[in-house]
């Protein structure tokens, strides 16, 4: 999988977790979704760094 495709996948994961977190009624599930969104955000940032290096 190319870096760009992976970044798009992680962006989608982050968006979905952030959106669904607000709808979850179970506190444990909400916490897991928040952690997933934060982890996906860090992954997207790391992938953006890698992409910028490969395009330079």
Question: What features would you describe in this structure?
Answer:
The structure is a single chain. By secondary structure, the protein is mainly α. Helix content is 89%, strand content 0%. It is built from 2 helices and no strands. Helix 1 runs antiparallel to helix 2. It starts with a helix and ends with a helix. 5% of the residues are buried.
List keywords for this structure.
56 residues; mainly alpha; 89% helix; 0% strand; elongated
Tell me the distance between the termini. 20 Å
**What overall geometry do the principal axes of the alpha carbons give?**
elongated
Largest sheet: none
Tell me the series of helices and strands, N- to C-terminal.
HH
Radius of gyration: 13 Å
| Low-confidence runs of at least 5 consecutive residues | none
Topology, number of strands: 0
Concise summary:
The chain has 56 residues and is an all-alpha fold. Helix content is 89%, strand content 0%.
